[in-house]
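Review form for a predicted model. The reviewer records the input and the model, then writes brief findings.
Reviewer: anonymous (R2)
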Amino acid sequence: QNTNPAQAAQSYYQGVQVWDTKWQDLLTKQTLGNRIP
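Model under review:
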């Protein structure tokens, strides 16, 4: 099966975006959790 470079780049970019969103969410929750005594 042939992998289209543009398609591979797009799916990789989307995966990175999803991870970035999850990471930001995690950091936000952690920061908020640290503020609450």
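Findings: The first helix runs from residue 5 to 35.
Further findings: The CA atoms of residues 27 and 34 lie 11 Å apart.
Recommendation: see findings above.
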